[in-house]
Write a structure and sequence with these properties.
The complex is a heterodimer of chains A (577) and B (153).
Chain A (H helix, E strand, L loop, with lengths): L1 H13 L22 H5 L18 E2 L12 E8 L5 E2 L4 E3 L2 E6 L3 E6 L5 E6 L12 E2 L3 E3 L2 E5 L4 E6 L5 E6 L14 E3 L2 E5 L10 E6 L5 E6 L29 E3 L4 E5 L20 E5 L6 E6 L15 E7 L2 E9 L4 E7 L4 E8 L6 E4 L6 E3 L10 E4 L13 E3 L4 E7 L2 E6 L21 E3 L8 E7 L4 E8 L8 E3 L3 E4 L6 E6 L5 E6 L9 E5 L2 E8 L3 H13 L12 E7 L2
Parallel strand pairs in A: 1-34, 3-8
Antiparallel strand pairs in A: 2-40, 4-5, 5-6, 6-7, 9-10, 10-11, 11-12, 13-14, 14-15, 15-16, 17-18, 18-19, 19-20, 21-22, 22-23, 23-24, 25-26, 27-30, 28-29, 29-32, 30-31, 32-33, 34-35, 35-36, 36-37, 38-39, 39-40
Chain B lengths: L8 E4 L21 E6 L15 E5 L7 H5 L5 E5 L11 E3 L4 E3 L6 E3 L5 E4 L11 E4 L2 E4 L12
Classes of the chains: A mainly beta (577), B mainly beta (153).
Chain lengths: 577, 153
């Protein structure tokens, strides 16, 4: 309150009285609207209530006041410095004019979405010995009058949405043993679902659900089956105990089937022969009954992962007409470089189609019935071998989310092409709390593919039903950010090391607008509306894997400088009046 | 958990010789580095309850060390906190050509010949050094860490 009073006073002395709001009440934060199952299932157009806005994971807003005819007039209306560095990967979450922004270092900011005034700030006291492999947060979840944050010291924290006061905090694992969280919690019918990162630290991944009200743990489902569970026989010996399968991105959800679709990370350590077998459910999508935690069905994109190709980004749920047949689709532009189309059902996930969307030299064949790939064995990293493969370990598309516009029927993929990686496999014992890659980290080099193509980053638009790329925009270096599409037929994305935030025509790919920001952008842009005015918001704050790629590219290309400025800022744009 | 202190022995943190005392003769000139835990010489208890106590040792040509570094070294052996000052990742990497300690998580590099000065990456400050002595051939701490270890924010 002190900060707000101070701000009020400074405004009062700085601005002529006639410009001040008519009443003191105008400076009060908007009344808080409790978040219900109905609102999460059918969110109002003006709001962005969850990580990808809707349960289908489309990263799409129907708002259309900002569109191709006027986006050139988009200007910043307010900014807010987060006060921390590292990767700002969270979308601003907006509920009726109140914005919640998660940042690195366990911070949540609540802001008046229209004015940019701070309502409250929460900052978790992180342990002094916390090792953060990924110092980031991908956002908060909402339910009723609470805000949920998953932390890098492996706690799920519930905050009072109106005050920012901590209501409860529940430990999900042991950070000293490699458990940590960076994902935005998923809220389904009063349950808060989160999962554990730590696949590079030898954990066994899981999804865990808590009662949203009191924080009671309701169920915990491991992504690697234990003895006696289906799929356990896809592991040898004790490999399952440290086999990875981490879960570090929010799932999607089908309310009709009552199934939550979560992506599962890579098998650990990296070389395939270090964990023989198919290794369920690594590099898979699993369909979880949110009431019980039971895995009802799954699809493994590729077995016995050896490339660090997490398939942790869950598929987008969309209705598609494929080959004249209407299907309830699952669309997944994979880290393995293939665009997967699957059909979801209550009991089964059916394979429909897969097409490479970047140059991929690992799969020699895809089984037309099951979708199971065959591998070019020369491209499979193993202990004692040096293998170069394409795409690199960061994949054709890493965790940043694609966007699906039901209005255009197009999928927008933040892809990286023409870039390969080398892995030198090594056998090393797991040391608790230390990086356990099974690869020589000093020799994890990137290289340009033989294609001679002059670009790496590529924003691609696909007609998924027809399996055709419709347009693309190319960038000389990496594109590493989630994508937003809107009812104004616009596509917004940052992700380049030149700090730009850009808008493209969704139908043609034409660049319509761009704004250079303070740092690089990696998180989801969002669209929202307050008092009839549409806004676009995004965090700019480079770090983590965007920077790791930058360092690696700088090694092979002298024109790439490793120094991309860091420090987070929330940007909010609207049309110039 | 008490931090390393004067007189502490240093033992291998892992591997075939895990928890064995590290002697001067164990370390070849030019690396590679060795990860170590301090051990209380009286109780023989390891100070391994916190990652902030972990130490990285490397032996270099004594004449290559700058004056400050040499003052805390023994026959070219230098010791530093193994917790990267960026995000506390254990500094386990070694570039043998450049003679730099490397954090495998976010690519920070430190020059062990110059008080672990940051030469690349996001680390905000050098690795705190641990002054060394030698007692009956075994490496020991000659004092506490020369700076703060742990999160700064």
């Amino acid at each position: 309150m002190f900060e707000r009073q101070l701000l009020w006073w400074s405004l009062a002395v700085a601005i002529p009285t006639a410009l001040l709001p008519a009443s003191a009440g105008a400076a009060d934060p908007p009344a808080y609207a409790p978040v219900t199952e109905q609102r999460l299932t059918n969110p109002e157009p003006q709001n962005w209530l969850m990580y990808r806005r809707t349960y289908d994971g489309a990263n799409y807003s129907p708002l259309n006041k900002i569109n191709g005819s006027n986006v050139g007039n988009l200007v910043p209306v307010w900014t807010f410095a987060t006060g921390v560095t590292e990767g700002h990967e969270a979308p601003p979450i907006v509920n009726n004019g109140v914005m919640f922004v998660a940042t690195p270092q366990g911070q949540v900011l609540a802001l008046d979405a229209k004015s940019g005034d701070l309502i409250w700030r929460y900052k978790r006291k992180l342990p002094e010995d916390l090792f953060q492999l990924h110092p980031t947060s991908r956002g908060v979840g909402l339910w009723q009058d609470k805000v949920y944050l998953a932390t890098t010291d492996a706690y799920l924290v519930a905050l009072d949405a109106k005050t920012g006061k901590e209501v409860w905090a529940k430990k999900i694992g042991d950070y000293q043993k490699g458990n940590y969280m960076t994902l935005a919690p998923q809220v389904i019918k009063g349950k808060v679902l989160v999962g554990s990162s730590g696949g590079e630290l030898g954990i066994r991944g899981f999804v865990v659900a808590f009662d949203a009200q009191d924080g009671k743990e309701l169920w915990r489902t491991y992504t690697i089956p234990g003895p006696g569970e289906p799929g356990h026989d896809t592991w040898k010996g004790d490999d399952w105990k440290t086999g990875g399968g981490s879960v570090w991105l929010t799932g999607n959800y089908d309310p009709q089937l009552n199934l939550a679709y979560w992506g599962v990370g890579n098998a650990a350590p990296w070389p395939g022969d270090a964990h023989p077998g198919d290794n369920l459910y690594t590099s898979s999508v699993i369909a979880i009954d949110p009431d019980t935690g039971k895995i009802k069905n799954h699809h493994q994109y590729h077995y016995n992962d050896a490339w660090d190709w997490d398939e942790v980004d869950p598929p987008i749920l969309a209705d598609l007409k494929v080959g004249g047949r209407d299907i309830k689709g699952l669309i997944h532009p994979g880290r393995n470089g293939y665009l997967w189309v699957l059909e979801r059902g209550a009991d089964k996930i059916n394979y429909v189609a897969a097409n490479p969307f970047v140059r991929q030299d690992v799969f020699s064949k895809i089984d037309p019935k099951t979708g199971r790939p065959e591998y070019n064995q020369a491209k499979v990293p193993a202990v004692g071998k040096t293998v170069t493969f394409c795409p690199s370990l960061w994949g054709g598309k890493d965790w940043p989310s694609a966007s699906y516009s039901p209005q255009t029927g197009l999928l927008f993929i933040p892809a990286n092409d023409n870039i390969c990686g080398t892995m030198v496999g090594e056998k090393k014992p797991l040391v608790e709390g230390q990086l356990w890659l099974g690869a020589d980290v000093d020799k994890l080099d990137l290289s340009k593919s033989q294609s001679g193509a002059p670009y790496i980053g590529e924003l691609q638009a696909w007609n998924v039903a027809e399996g055709k790329k419709v347009w693309s925009q190319q960038f000389p270096q990496q594109l590493f950010a989630s994508v937003l599409s809107t009812g104004g037929d616009l596509v917004f994305v940052g992700g380049t090391n030149d700090r730009y935030f850009r808008a493209f025509d969704a139908k043609t790919g034409k660049l319509l607008w761009q704004q250079k920001t303070n740092s690089g952008i990696m998180g989801n842009p969002v669209a929202f509306e307050v008092d009839g005015v549409q806004y676009i918001a995004v965090q700019s704050g480079w770090g983590v894997d965007g920077q790791r790629i930058q360092d690696s590219l700088a090694k092979i290309d002298p024109s790439v400088k490793p120094d991309v400025p860091q420090g987070g800022v929330i940007w909010v744009f609207a049309l110039k009046q | 958990m008490a931090r390393p202190d004067k007189g502490d022995l240093l033992v291998y943190a892992s591997g075939d010789k895990a928890h064995e005392v590290i002697t001067l003769a164990d370390l070849p000139v030019g690396g590679p580095p060795v990860m170590a835990w301090p051990m209380d010489p009286a109780s023989k208890s390891l100070r391994d309850g916190s990652r902030l106590n972990q130490v990285v040792l490397v032996r270099l040509n004594a004449e290559d060390l700058d004056e400050t570094t040499r003052a805390h070294s023994v026959d070219g052996v230098v010791a530093y906190s193994a917790s990267c000052t960026h995000a506390l990742c254990p500094v386990t990497g070694w570039n043998a050509e450049k003679h730099v300690l490397r954090c495998p998580c976010h690519n920070s590099e430190y020059d062990p010949r110059r008080a672990a000065t940051v030469v690349f990456g996001p680390a905000p400050r050098p690795l705190p050094g641990l002054p060394l002595a030698v007692t009956d051939g075994a490496l020991t701490a000659a004092g506490k860490f020369l700076g703060k270890v742990g999160q700064t924010s």
